[in-house]
Give the backbone structure.
Amino acid sequence: MMKRTMNSERRYVMTQIPKDKIWTRDFIFICFSNFFIFAGFQMTLPTLPLFVNKLGGSDQLIGLVVGVFTLSALLIRPWSGHMLESYGRRFVYLIGLFVFVLSVGSYAFTGSLALLFLMRIVQGLGWGMSTTAVGTIATDLIPPKRRGEGMGYFGLAGNLAMAFGPALGLLLIPFINFSGLFMIAAGGGLTAFFIAAFIHYKPTDKPTEKRKRWDVFEKTALMPSVLLFFITMVFGGIATFLPLYTTSLGVDGIELYFVIFAFSLMFVRTFAGKIYDRKGHKAVFLPGTLLVFVAMIDLSLLSNEFMLLTAALLFGMGFGTVLPALQAWAVQEAPLNRKGMANATFFSFFDLGVGLGAILFGLIASKFSYSDIYLASAVSVGIAMVIYMIYVKRHAPQQSREAVQYK
């Protein structure tokens, strides 16, 4: 494996990307690989809570099953970041994809909540490794001066999977059993694995300094990552409980919700990254978070399909504006040999937000109501907006240098 990794990464030298060109062979391959891994994951996102419910699990247990996945991904990300720099992108990405396929495929043979809980932990490990690696690989392939734009395009692959995966999963449930559904989801990860095997990976320089014992994050990526945490708590509430919420209200359109959400997110990402590259995060963060805030208020008052689909449109546009900007911000100031750790830090806070959000909202649902989940989500977004405004105010003397500087 290590010999093949070195050979693949040597071939990368022979295929260096032209200056400022985004759409290279390897970038297209990594986008397709990202699409299939996200499609497999997204198919399970709205259907797994239904599966837990079928096995007799409560709302609180649903939140724990979702939460333990993201928390295990969180724990593996710092290790993955170091492995990316020490052993190369190919090694970490392929191992992560293999573990993901193995764990999701095992759901097809799971009949107990205890075993499902265990395999969710394993899935989180594979997901944490693969997504940390794929974000770093994409960063390697994108010209620094077009990083915001390039990450926006790269994110479109995952966004398309957000439209395709949840809707397909929910549409298949009435026609096939959960075992068949989970095997199809595992097939998406397996396809991603085969595509990834043909990518030319960037060669890595061995770290010259001994790794510090508690080196678990990249400090230059902390601010955008903290902001991401409060926003992805919202995502945890949407992904975990929205199908159950709409069913309890008798509101139709949940499959169409995910389609509208993903396509509106895709649309806005085609230009939000360019705005970030030209004007910085000030031009995109507050407008994006405001749209997410309004979407959460809409869902808390949900009474019909029109309100549901309006929330999908607003949430997709807001999330699609904020996410690529925060990711580009997270890696732009990191040293060249710390880009992997910057991505690990970014996605660790993503996982932490989704995981803690799912657990917290499971408690809220069991003690109060589903609508209260989305009121709490609005509060979480509001906190992110306040933190950001304080940050901008404290860094006002530096705003003349707001144009993005890349290392």
Summary: The mean pLDDT is 81. The CA atoms of residues 54 and 84 lie 39 Å apart.
